[in-house]
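Please study the protein below:
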Amino acid sequence: MYRQLRVAVVVPAYNEAQKIGDAVATIPALVDHVIVVDDASADDTSAVARAAGDRRGHEPIDVVRHGDNRGVGAAIVTGYRRALAASADVVAVMAGDGQMDPADLPALLDPIADGSADYVKGNRFLHPEVWTAMPAARIVGNVVLSAATRVTSGYHHVFDSQCGYTAASRAALEAVDLDGVFPRYGYPNDILSRLHAAELRVLDVRVRPIYGPHWTSGIHLGNAIHPIPWVLLRSWGNRLASEARARRRRAAMS
């Protein structure tokens, strides 16, 4: 419980057996419900995650395993639905590879607890370590995608669009068509446009960038260049269409 809010954390994971244990065990005690979504890993991700729940020393974690690999966006949506069914008031997302600092979690929860935001996302570019911690190729790619997402999402004040460290209020998740969220890489860009179409408040907060010496990523040139421009165009079109429908409804009511 955090400031009278029941907090759930969704941890999407794919072949993270070597890192998921520490990622789960270090989730703060303020979190009431931890949901690990194993997206059909070929290793022991699920078993290691369950064992880490025992190390954490709180209620057992909830491990959900997809029968087939659906993508990180789909894994997060599965976790969102599980959290809503468990009566969570706010749902955060933390990666299974330990790339998100647990100490930053309250900063994401506070604006929702204060009633000043519906969806809060991390922005590593607000942290002074980003220029030395984040790989140069990631900085360039992120700047380009963040600039494009500002246009397609309608949120011109947000940056670091690819940062997956987020917190969403229950109301925000219930207002968005979760079934329509893009299931793979590109989901952060897509969900922002859906939040804007639902007229929800999104806020950036500073989070620490973490890239260890043995850091690797499942994102590479092929799976980034192919879907993301299409996702951005689709999201832009969907947002504009949703906003046009909303304007027509308001005009009909006036």
Remarks:
- The chain has a mean pLDDT of 90.
- The chain has one domain: 7-253.
- The chain has ten helices and seven strands.
